[in-house]
Amino acid sequence: MANPRTALNLRSGLSIPKPKSTSNILAIGTDLLRNILFLLFLLRWARKSVLQIRGRGPFGTLLDAYTSLRRLSYAIFLRLPGVRSQVKTQVAETIQKLELKLVPQGPGISRFLTLPKEPWTDQQVRGELEKLGDMKHTRWEDGRVSGAVYHGEDTLIKVQVEAFQRFMVANPIHPDVFPGVRKMEAEIVAMVLTLFNAPPGAAGVTTSGGTESILMACLSARQKAYTERGVTEPEIIIPATAHAAFHKAASYFNIKLHQVACPSPNYTVSIKAVSRLINSNTILLVGSAPNFPHGLIDDIAALSRLALRRHLPLHVDCCLGSFLMPFLSRAGFPTQPFDFTLKGVTSISCDTHKYGFAPKGNSTLLYRTAALRTYQYFISPDWSGGVYGSIGIAGSRPGALIASCWASLMSVGEKGYIESCHSIVGAAKKIETAIREDPALKDDLKVIGKPLVSVVAFDSPTLNIYDIADSMSAKGWHLNALQNPP
Question: Is the pLDDT of residue 17 over 70?
Fold first, then answer.
């Protein structure tokens, strides 16, 4: 028989672990999960910091941090109680002044803010339209406006009006109802693709203007990167002189935007700086041909080589260059590569409503392949009203504008566009030559870069350039004042 004292000693000598409570296990799991999340957070921001430093460099990173801190401090300052009320008052006064300036008022000007109780007669409508057209304005008819107005003289306008009237109710979203509009739209795209030396299989769309063309190019690049590479934090690299529509696209589509400096003396985008900024989140590179502020063409050939090497899309913004860039050489002017002959160029935006002389509201977006175009499509297969699809932002679109654009291209023709290129670019060359060589101008005005197309930007080392702009405005001229270089 076992000794009870021995059994007791054995039990007291053994250390039998007690099972841990559920709460302890949950606490350990929670701590582990918290540590993992914190580690992922650190890794995420460490990666962002490395990419930032690699892309901008130490000095550029510090400068970006300083700029962000300054903006934050200024925003906090403006929210202080005493300051906020003064800011609101000044903003309200500024808005009121702008409204007074932008909305015509005064003797002889009637404002119609509600529908008339009784229908107006045709004579009344025409009379009021005539008054509106005759309002005091900067005389673009006399050639005193820089940009803003692009038209092919009265003869072409008459043709455009006839085309507009003929297809007034047309809507290309219904191609079976308006097949003629669909045919004209396809032909517009085909003609512009040919101008830009598109390869077989290229495709395109018409849009409402350069901004929509740029928006759709950015959206297509974003969707392509998400579908093919799983990119969820997309980034675009643009020259600092690129059109503001790229900023709008970044805001609309939640894309991070990197602006690259365009240093003197060329004032074109720095290819090395672009290359440094490329990372796994980059979805699109951008170049201008030419840019709006200075009328200068970025080194599209170098951007093309970089895009090919890094397997990235490259968009060329040729909205301003439109029907001038493709005809420069045939009009006898120097040019540089910018179109689909460069293998890295995957999309181009071209405004037919600028130097194509079509009515406002016309542009094109061209793609190297039809597959690239599909990324901008929207399709809703389960809508209660049926399957809905559109090629871009708009659903219904004015077929009358498409008809007017088609009529413009057919009326002017290749010969007409070569002649207009010769005339327009020739005038720009005369202005540039005068600024560079005229004894009365050359010491006080300096041309920015080497413009090849229709825009000539100039600065002054001795005068306040904004005073010059104001003085020109007082004399009835409308010039575009720029911010940079200051």
Answer: no
Question: Locate tokens 């002889």: which residue?
Answer: 108
Cα separation, 101 vs 99, whole angstroms: 5
Tell me which residue of 380, 378, 381, 382 sits closest to 392, measured CA to CA: 378
Query: With contact defined as beta carbons under 8 Å apart, do 316 and 324 qualify?
Result: no
Count Cβ atoms below 10 Å from residue 196 Cβ, excluding itself: 21
Distance CA 478, CA 146 (A): 6
Nearest to 61 by CA among 70, 51, 52: 52
The amino acid at residue 20 is K
Sort 22 into a burial class: Cβ within 10 Å, 0-12 / 13-18 / 19+: exposed
**Residue pointed to by tokens 């809508």:** 383
Which own/partner contact pairs does 457-462 have at CB distance under 8 Å and 24+ positions apart? 457/293, 457/294, 457/295, 457/482, 459/485
Q: CA triplet 315, 319, 320: central angle to 5 degrees?
A: 130
Place of tokens 């939640």: 254
DSSP letter at 325 equals G
| Closest to 291 (Cα-Cα) out of 451, 401, 172 | 451
Model pLDDT for residues 283-297, shown as the tens digit of each residue: 999 999 999 999 999
- Euclidean distance between the first and the last CA atom of the chain, given in angstroms as a whole number: 106
Rounded distance between C-alpha atoms, residue 326 and residue 317, angstroms: 13
Radius of gyration of the chain (CA): 31
The residues, any chain, with a CB within 8 Å of residue 213's CB and separated by 6 or more, are 207, 319, 349, 350, 351, 363, 364, 365
Tens of pLDDT, residues 29-69: 788 888 888 888 888 778 777 777 777 778 777 877 888 88
